[in-house]
Every structure is written in C-alpha cells, then in structure tokens.
Design a protein that fits this description.
The protein folds into 2 domains: 30 residues; 141 residues, Dna Ligase, domain 1. With 186 residues, it is an alpha+beta fold. 23% of the residues are buried. The protein is built from 6 helices and 8 strands; from the N terminus they run ααβαββαβββββαα. Helices cover 36% and strands 22% of the residues. The strands form 2 sheets. The protein has a 6-stranded antiparallel beta sheet with strand order 1-5-6-7-8-4. The chain has a two-stranded antiparallel ribbon with strand order 2-3.
Length: 186
C-alpha cells in the first residue's frame, strides 16, 4: 500500500469518526437512565400515589430453584397468571399503614434505576415474589418485584418499564409478607 493510499484511508476514517461521533453520542443519551426522567415511570408512580386501592399478590415458588414445590403448588392452590407469571389468587391483607408505606416506597423514583435488559445476572432469572396492583389510566398498573435479582417490572396498559430496585428500601415492607407460599424444604 502506498503512502498516499494510507493517508487517504486515515482521512476517510477520521471523516467517518467526525460524522459518527455526534450520532453515537446522541443515541447513548436517547432514553432516560433514571426513573425520575422517564415519563412512563412518573405517570405510573403518580397513579400509585393517588390510587384509592392497592392489591398485593404473592408469587408462586421459583420455577428453577423450587421446581417441585412450584408444581405441587400449581396442583394444590388457586392461582392467576399475570404478565406470564403465576400468583396466588387470594391477595395478601394490607392495613392502611401498609398501603401508605408501600405507596411512599414504591412510587419513589430514588429507590430505582432503569434496568438494562441485556445485563445478565447469576440469580436464576427474574421471578416475581410479589406484585403490587393499582388502578391507572386505561386499566391497571402492576409492579412485579423479584428479591433474588433486585429487579422489578412495571407493567401498565400500554408499556413495561424494567427496573432495578434498592433492596434495603424496597424489601423490608414486603419480605415478611409470606402468606400462602410454603417455605422451601431444607
């Protein structure tokens, strides 16, 4: 390759970099990175804060780590499937104080970050331990919470937002709620 051709190739690469750099930078900033910047999250959180009702559903055992227990529960218990996941049909009881705490905690965007759907975790995969359900524009909003991977899926009638949550804040009002799901055998 001649010196002239090498210089020409470097110029083409440099020109391409000048054109592509702003495009790549713009795409990196295309979507929000924090829930408080995501209008979808803000709308659902506002509906949660204003909701007169809040329903707490308990998820069935984990399909990978508690497979036998899950199959036994599916034969024994009444359950509903919500967004592809089984939950006990009977909601868990909530006091007014519980509802206030869950509203404040779960509607606070500071307790979450947006989740990268391509990020792999060694937790066995998302499996909701609980679902919080409340009315919102067009139907119901639902926050499915997985303690194993500290992830939450926020479902609304028109979209889903994938979240990571602060385990120290989100877990305490929920972890002790086990009501129908049996303890796994030791």
């Amino acid at each position: 390759m001649t010196a002239h051709r090498r210089a020409s190739n470097r110029a083409q690469v440099g020109f391409a970099a000048v054109l592509l750099t702003p495009l790549v930078a713009a795409c990196i900033g295309c979507g929000p990175t924090r829930p408080q910047d995501d209008k979808r999250f803000r709308d659902a959180a506002e509906a949660l804060r204003a909701s007169p009702t809040l329903t707490l559903l308990e998820g069935l055992p984990h399909p990978r780590f508690e497979r036998d227990l899950l199959e036994a529960e599916k034969r024994r218990a009444r359950f509903v499937t919500r967004h592809g996941w089984p939950f006990y049909e009977q909601p868990l009881p909530l006091s007014e104080a519980d509802i206030r705490t869950l509203r404040e905690t779960c509607a606070n965007p500071a307790n979450y970050s947006l989740r990268d759907p391509e990020q792999l975790k060694l937790c066995g995969g998302f499996h909701p331990d609980y679902a919080l359900v409340w009315p919102c524009t067009g139907g119901e909003c639902e926050l499915q919470i997985c303690f194993g991977c500290t992830e939450a899926d926020l479902h609304t009638p028109s979209y889903t937002v994938l979240l990571e949550f602060d385990d120290v804040v989100i877990s305490p009002p929920l972890r002790s709620r086990r009501g129908q799901r049996p303890e796994p055998p030791r």
